[in-house]
Amino acid sequence: MSSAKSVPVSPLAPATYPDLPAIAGVGIATAEAGIRYAGRTDVLYVALAEGTQAAGVFTRSKCPSAPVDWCRDALTGPGARALVVNSGNANAFTGARGRDAVALTADIAARAAGCRPNEIFIASTGVIGEPLDATKFEGVLADCAGRTEAGSAAWAAAAKAIMTTDTFPKLATRQAEIEGVTVTINGIAKGAGMIAPDMATMLSFVFTDAALPQMVLQHLLSAGTKTSFNCVTVDGDTSTSDTLMLFATAKAGNTGITDAADPRLSGFRAALDDLLVELAQLVAKDGEGARKFVTVEVGGATDAASAHRIAMSIANSPLVKTAIAGEDANWGRVVMAVGKAGEPADRDRLSIWFGDIRVAHQGARDSAYSEEAASAVMREPGVTVRVDLGIGDGSARVWTCDLTSGYIAINGDYRS
After folding, report:
1. Residue ranges of the chain that CATH labels 3.10.20.340
2. pLDDT digits (tens, 9 = 90+) for 294-335
């Protein structure tokens, strides 16, 4: 195949992209290895300083990819010296050949980085079920290791290298202080379809120069995921390859912290959580065929877990999503999605809003309902659906997009 099909950039794409600063201890290079398409950057190599610690959360799919299995094992190792990511082939459902391909990739990268294979982290995204020819990394990774860069252009190239059906790169940056020492956090992500994470998004990688031990990093990342990537859905399908990793190079020189609950981490935690939310929202805004960014807010549930399940039921409903695509304020479909969630609900206490317009109240159409006002809300590029169950204090917020014919067009010929 010579190239991937061209897909128009999402109308929800950012008007501008942030310039990500260099992070001490992180070097970036991208390359063309011809994994699936010719003439397209499809490899990301990130060199990490000695002493870098890593944390990760991965798909809970019972059919995980070979790279996911590798990374889970590598987290128990001595640390991280390099990250290798390829697009075009997910190396999932590839059996022993997939495991061998990951091991060979790690060996090639380890020679390039001058470290042990268990200090290499690997992620792959693309078509499922096709063997990955890891020999294509021979020479490519060594070349990458010899020409890494650290500036904003390198970060932009990194975000583009991991794209598949994405229409725009996803980048974010934050700064925070740990006991007066300024630390930087940079993150990139990819994902547009097969998005219903049960941990993260398809692929996302976050880097910081903070000095934090592995267990602290893991706690912060796992907690941050719950209110970010686990609150985004495009199509209700959880990927085999979901990988979210956080790398800390310790180059900022802040005082060591051994407890994730240490109040000295409050600023860093807030910055990390905010960055993860931004990346998750960018994924929803680039949902395949998306024309509208949708926020679903649920309150008045029995508890937060119940509210989250109801919110995801609404966000994953094809009928709700197509109504939003058609700019139809059809609250009946929201009622349906609440009722099918299997969570406690009382029809006669239910209220629903589109934006600031209450369309239903206490189990019936709102007495002040205005079709004109509701339709105006639905014409906006960002639509908020809010539900109050009126039976408790539980609340949740998730993000999704509408469902258009573009989603079918993209996925109907994904492999061709």
Report:
1. 293-412
2. 999 999 999 999 999 999 999 999 999 999 999 999 999 999
Considering the segment(s) 26-285 as one domain, its CATH architecture is: 4-Layer Sandwich (3.60)
With contact defined as beta carbons under 8 Å apart, do 188 and 125 qualify? no
* CA separation for the pair 375, 175 (Å, rounded): 40
Q: What's the predicted TM-score (pTM) here? A: 0.92
Superfamily of domain 293-412, CATH level 4: ArgJ beta chain, C-terminal domain (3.10.20.340)
255 is catalytic: no
Q: Which residues of the chain form CATH 3.60.70.12?
A: 26-285
- Of the residues 30, 52, 167, 201, only one is catalytic, namely 201
pLDDT at 131: 94
β-strand pairing of 357-361 with 26-31:
unpaired
**CA–CA dist 296, 278 (Å, integer):** 16
Tokens of 399: 């993000």
DSSP string, 40-77: S--EEEEEE-TT-EEEEEE---SS--HHHHHHHHHTTS
Spell out the residues 6+ positions from residue 127 whose beta carbon is closer than 8 angstroms to its own: 36, 88, 89, 90, 414, 415
Tell which phi-psi region holds residue 21, choosing left (phi > 0), alpha (psi between -120 and 50) or beta: beta
Cα 386 to Cα 31, 334, 356, 398, distances in angstroms: 45, 10, 9, 11
What is the rounded average pLDDT of the residues 87-108? Answer: 96
The tokens describing 227, both together, are 């209110």
Q: Are 256 and 217 in contact (CB under 8 A)?
A: no
Locate 100 and state its tokens: 């061998």
What would the two tokens of residue 1 be?
Answer: 């195949």
Spell out the alpha helix ranges (H) of 241-347: 266-285, 304-315, 318-325, 331-340
Cβ-Cβ contacts under 8 Å for 36 (sequence gap 6 or more): 1, 42, 87, 88, 89, 126, 127
Cβ 121 vs Cβ 83: under 8 Å: yes
User: DSSP 3-state assignment of 92?
Assistant: coil
